[in-house]
Write a structure and sequence with these properties.
- The protein is extended and about 110 Å long.
- The chain is mostly helical.
- Helix 4 runs parallel beside helix 9 and helix 13 packs antiparallel against helix 14.
- The protein is built from 15 helices and no strands.
- It starts with a helix and ends with a helix.
Length: 315
């Protein structure tokens, strides 16, 4: 009798385990649960690497925290002080000039390069791979090469211009020691660095355009210029908007190129938000004001992203 009861108990526990396992398996096979499980690693990374540092920066920006000294809440005083700081106002101007000129030239040159790469060329695959080199090489390393080329004594750029008869002496242009030339130098390096991203992205858009549209246009007697403005450019517009959006964000937050080439000089003429925030927040130890500098453009970027995404949805 006792043996029969034990067997019934074991069978009951086994059936209960099987039932629990089946319920768990059915629960995890639901589409909604599987979806949340798949995005949970990315969500965890976003929370730890993006959301948490952003919230810490928000807290620092409204406090008077210094290195090694706990701060207290000061409201928007750091932001108001920045609006009366001449160096910050010059940085604001530098950032808009640097970003607008760089993105403009990257768009024009990237579109031109993509159109060339879309033609029938010898060694097309090799050329497409070579175009990516500036994007593959570490930024700090490639910028050191540009720093040598813009050096006041050993400048390859000046040597070339001198032998072309465009300069009176090889040391006539002090690229990194003159405010306007220093700004031109960091823009040149940024354009060189970002050009592959534009060219390859636009090339992907060009390849996706159906050839039948061009053949139909040729049948109607359309020339190359007409095909570009009435077929290529309209169909490339969504790609261009996305590429310009990403490039604007990355260019506004650029740090490596300016830090390696000029460190914000001469006379603060090439300081951007990232380099000034580094100098004020980390070098000078004023973490509160440094965080306020780095977050100053956040509302403007949100507005830019909103309108560009709205434009994409219309397309």
């Amino acid at each position: 009798m006792i043996t029969q009861k034990s067997e019934e108990k074991v069978l009951s526990i086994s059936a209960s385990k099987d039932s629990l396992w089946q319920r768990l398996r059915a629960y995890f096979q639901r589409d909604t649960v599987v979806g949340y499980l798949f995005i949970s690693p990315a969500l965890l990374l976003l929370l730890t690497l993006v959301a948490y540092p952003f919230c810490i920066a928000l807290y620092f920006s409204v406090s008077n925290t210094m290195v090694g000294v706990p701060g207290s809440f000061v409201g928007f005083r750091n932001f108001i002080n920045l609006l009366h700081n001449d160096i910050f106002l010059q940085t604001l101007q530098n950032s808009f000039i640097f970003t607008s000129v760089s993105v403009f030239f990257k768009t024009i040159l990237g579109l031109t390069l993509a159109l060339l790469l879309n033609q029938q060329l010898w060694f097309k695959k090799f050329i497409r791979g070579a175009v990516l080199l500036p994007f593959v090489i570490p930024t700090a390393l490639s910028t050191l090469g540009w720093w040598w080329m813009f050096d006041s004594l050993y400048s390859v750029v000046n040597w070339t211009l001198y032998h072309l008869g465009l300069l009176g002496s090889p040391s006539e242009l002090n690229w990194l020691g003159t405010p306007h030339l220093a700004m031109a130098a960091v823009i040149i390096v940024n354009v060189w660095r970002g050009l592959p991203f534009f060219a390859i992205s636009i090339l992907a858009g060009l390849v996706a355009i159906p050839r039948e549209l061009y053949e139909a246009a040729e049948t109607d007697g359309a020339g190359k210029v007409s095909k570009f403005f009435y077929i290529t450019l309209p169909l490339l517009r969504p790609v261009l908007v996305i590429v310009v959006l990403f490039s604007t964000i990355f260019t506004l937050s650029d740090f490596n190129i300016v830090y390696v080439l000029t460190r914000g000089g001469p006379i603060n003429s090439t300081h951007l938000f990232a380099t000034l925030a580094n100098q004020v927040g980390l070098v000078s130890g004023n973490i509160g004001e440094g965080a306020a500098i780095s977050l100053f453009l956040f509302p403007i970027l949100v507005i830019i992203v909103y309108f560009q995404l709205k434009m994409i949805r219309k397309e």
